[in-house]
């Protein structure tokens, strides 16, 4: 992960490659024909998938202003001190203790 000290994060533009049409079979043109189903069975999530999805939905939203503030503090060298490391460790431990109580 890269943190940009300017506070701006360039969004990654992921270009999806264009799909090539399927090859003609027996001289028949398949363009415009209905798509074949991907699977013969309906999608049925597993218990593990359902648990992971629930955990993902419970995560807090990413707040851009917080990320920008932390990036600025990193750029200024405020978070590189032993005191900052100790405060971070305390916050992580406190969060872990609060999570285990819930």
Structure explained in plain terms:
- The structure is a single chain.
- By secondary structure, the chain is an all-alpha fold.
- It has a domain at 64-101.
- It has three helices and no strands.
- The protein has helices at 47-57, 64-75, 82-101.
- The chain is elongated.
- The model has no long low-confidence stretch (mean pLDDT 75).
- Our count of helices gives 3
Oligomeric organization of the protein chains: single chain
What structural class should be given to the helix and strand makeup? mainly alpha
- Termini gap: 30 Å
* Beta-strand content: under 5%
Low-confidence stretches: none
Average pLDDT confidence is 75
Would you count the extended β strands for me? 0
What is the radius of gyration? 24 Å
N-to-C SSE series? Answer: HHH
**What would you call the shape?**
elongated
- Which percent bin holds the helix content? 40-55%
Report the biggest beta sheet as strand number plus sense, adding barrel if it closes.
none
Features:
single chain; 102 residues; mainly alpha; 3 helices; 0% strand; elongated
Task: Briefly say what this structure is.
With 102 residues, this protein is mainly alpha-helical. The protein has helices spanning 47-57, 64-75, 82-101. Helices cover 42% and strands 0% of the residues.
């Amino acid at each position: 992960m890269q943190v940009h000290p300017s506070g701006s994060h360039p969004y990654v533009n992921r270009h999806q490659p264009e799909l090539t049409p399927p090859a003609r079979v027996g001289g028949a043109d398949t363009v415009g024909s209905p798509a074949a189903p991907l699977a013969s069975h309906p999608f049925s999530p597993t218990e593990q998938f359902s648990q992971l999805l629930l955990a993902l939905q419970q995560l807090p939203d990413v707040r851009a202003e917080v990320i920008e503030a932390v990036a600025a503090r990193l750029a200024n060298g405020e978070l590189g001190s032993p005191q900052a490391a100790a405060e971070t460790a305390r916050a992580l431990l406190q969060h872990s203790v609060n999570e285990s109580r819930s």
